[in-house]
Design goal:
The chain is mostly helical. It has 16 helices and no strands. InterPro entries: CiliaryAsmbly_MitoImport (IPR051982), TPR-like_helical_dom_sf (IPR011990), TPR_rpt (IPR019734).
Amino acid sequence: MVKEGKKTLLEKWEIPINHLDFDYVKQCTNPKELEKIYKILQSGEEGYYPELTKCTEEHLRALKPNSKVFRTEAPVLKKDHLDQETFQQIRQNLTKFSLSAKEKEKEVEGNPKKLKIEYPEVRQPKAPPQNGGKLDKNPADRIKSHEYEKWDKYDADAEMVKMDLQEEIQKERAERQKSQKKVVIEEIVNPIWNKMTKSEREELALKHKIKGNEYFKTKDFEEAHREYSKCIDIEPSAIAYNNRAIANIKLDRLREAIEDCDACLRVEPKNLKALMRKAQALELDDCKRSALEVLQEILKIDPENAAAKKSAEKLRKEIPSPLTGAFRMKIEDIPEELPEELSEELPEVQDVDFSKLIIPNRIVKSKMAAVAQNLGKI
């Protein structure tokens, strides 16, 4: 039962009542909508339909086996509930983690030297003018109202040009000062990473990675790309390259995304996520055959990868099949100068009279002479 004033799940998700039907459920290919229909049927707000609920569940499992609606709450497992092998594995992992944490702590404590960072000087207020803060209201170059001769010589257009030039000069000066400040900041920050210990670099890189993930969740892909780049500059890793690759894909920088995927694969050659993103970037860059080759490589590593299977099937339909009897030609570069052994074996080229090679099938007598004779008789 639903309380008064409270919307039912059907109203909340705006699912039409006629969608709660066997025919519609079997034809539906949208997993999200099926999840909503399954939750509505489980709630019992619209009635209890065990067969329809079972049909929806089976169809949803076929489309999305790892759907959240199939998750069930279970109590936390205790030592007695685990088999000996699983317990030993968990114990070993915890021991490794505690040892690595202690090693990092010792590394940080064993390096008591603090980094000396040379910050720029603090900006000081400008010195007050010597005349007690009073500005000169009548500068020497100002024309007085009664100086008519100077007013006659005054060129307003020229003065306007001077003012525009001064404004442009001030803008250029301000931009130059701003760029110089940026250079100073970069010169201060970059050497710090080189002076840090490995554990400190890893910790700082992790902070930038987490910050990049937060920007990515808010769909600020430019800032996410910047944070991932900082992470790579501080401590390059397969995860950082992988993250920057997806940011590049979102920013439509496909060539850079492929390069990041290749960098990740150099560290971890069987990284499925990097291979999948490389295939995605290649497909978007209209290199569909190359994308299919990458997907086939994924299926060699993980034959049951559903996403790779689906993408490969889609690409096979889009890529035109080669013509019958077609084959790939192997092109070899032939050097201009042949080796001495081959040049000695080749026969010398002789002059050939090509006119001797032309042999007509039959000789046709020209009629021009007979026509000329007839014309002479007339």
